[in-house]
Predict the structure of TM2 domain-containing protein.
Amino acid sequence: MNQTKFCFACSQSIDARAEICPKCGVRQTNPPIVGEKNKLAAALLAFFLGGFGIHKFYLGRIGQGFLYLLFCWTFLPAFVAFIEGIIYLCSSDEQFARKYG
C-alpha cells in the first residue's frame, strides 16, 4: 500500500517518500515549529521579575511559578531566573518553541 502526504507548499497529494513535489518542485522538509510564546518576552520577564516566577507563569509552568513565589524571599529564585533568561536567549527559536510551545 502506497502512503501519501500533502505538499506543504501547494497542498498536492504526493508519495510519502518524495523529497521534491512533482507539481511545484518544492523540496519537502519538515516545516519549522512555531510556538505561541516569545522567547525574548520570557527572557525579559526572567531578568526583571524572575525572582517572583513571573516568567514561569508566562510559560505555563504554574507549579514552578508558585515554587518561585514561595521562596522569593531567599533570592535564590532570582539567581536561577537570571540563568534561565540567558538560556532562553541562547536557545534557537525552534528549540524554545519545542520546549515551551
Notes: The longest helix spans residues 76-90. The chain has five helices and two strands. The chain has a mean pLDDT of 89.
